[in-house]
């Protein structure tokens, strides 16, 4: 699914105006009259950002945000409200919202913030994809290779690893070479960065 601006607002004129504004700059939109409708349709692979009204009947925008956080949703959230206040803004931002706008707002400013949120969503998904690839490569390591990789990342020298695991230095070198190959690491520094991203070294 291409990046989309998802709009959740209980007022139809607001939904229509926001959708028209987004489409005027070439941004696809999907509109929902209340949070329950959004949750019914929500798919984990959706990309884009979420324009969300704060005060709505039955389920508030903040409650929807909490539910999405529980589901692991990474869509950047921009709150829009005519009744905003500082404590509400702080609560929204603490829960992960990327922005908070109060009605009436400047159209160009909203577009700018939406485009920023879309860039953030793309960046975040690239990070998640990179992390998932590192995890996949880690799963290809044998238990012995994983143990050695953790020791290498912890800064242990080959001779120390060899002594503690009762291996020859040559065996450790061969394991190390296979680890580098399987992980696709071109240097020790790169291997360390990859391992620390998803698998902090165990205490040894």
Which tags fit this structure?
9 helices, 57% helix, 5-stranded parallel β-sheet, 204 residues, alpha/beta
Q: What features would you describe in this structure?
A:
This protein has 204 residues and is of the alpha/beta class. It contains nine helices and five strands, in the order βαβαβαβαβααααα. Strands 2-1-3-4-5 form a five-stranded parallel beta sheet, sandwiched between helices. Strand 1, helix 1 and strand 2 form a beta-alpha-beta unit. Helix 5 crosses helix 9, helix 6 crosses helix 8 and helix 7 crosses helix 8. The radius of gyration is 24 Å and the shape is elongated. The protein starts with a strand and ends in a 6-residue tail after the last helix. The relative contact order is 0.10. The mean pLDDT is 87.
- Quantity of strands, as a count: 5
Structural class: alpha/beta
Regions with little confidence, pLDDT below 50 for 5+ residues: none
Beta-strand level of the residues, as a percent range?
A: 5-15%
> What spatial form do the alpha-carbon principal axes imply?
elongated
């Amino acid at each position: 699914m291409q990046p989309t601006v998802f709009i959740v607002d209980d007022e139809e004129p607001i939904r229509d105006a926001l959708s028209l504004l987004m489409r005027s700059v070439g941004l696809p939109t999907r509109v929902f009259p209340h949070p329950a409708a959004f949750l019914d349709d929500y798919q984990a692979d959706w990309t884009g950002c979420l324009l969300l009204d704060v005060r709505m009947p039955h389920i508030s925008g903040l409650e929807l945000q909490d539910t999405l956080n529980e589901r692991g949703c990474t869509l950047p959230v921009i709150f829009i409200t005519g009744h905003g206040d500082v404590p509400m803004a702080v609560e929204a931002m603490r829960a992960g919202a990327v922005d908070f706008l109060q009605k009436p707002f400047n159209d160009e400013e909203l577009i700018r913030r939406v485009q920023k949120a879309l860039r953030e969503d793309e960046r975040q998904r690239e990070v998640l994809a990179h992390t998932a690839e590192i995890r996949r490569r880690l799963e290809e390591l044998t238990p012995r290779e994983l143990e050695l990789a953790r020791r290498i990342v912890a800064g242990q020298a080959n001779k120390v690893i060899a002594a503690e695991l009762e291996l020859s230095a040559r065996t450790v070198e061969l394991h190390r070479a296979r680890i580098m190959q399987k992980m696709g690491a071109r240097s020790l520094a790169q291997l360390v960065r990859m391992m620390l991203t998803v698998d902090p070294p165990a205490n040894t």
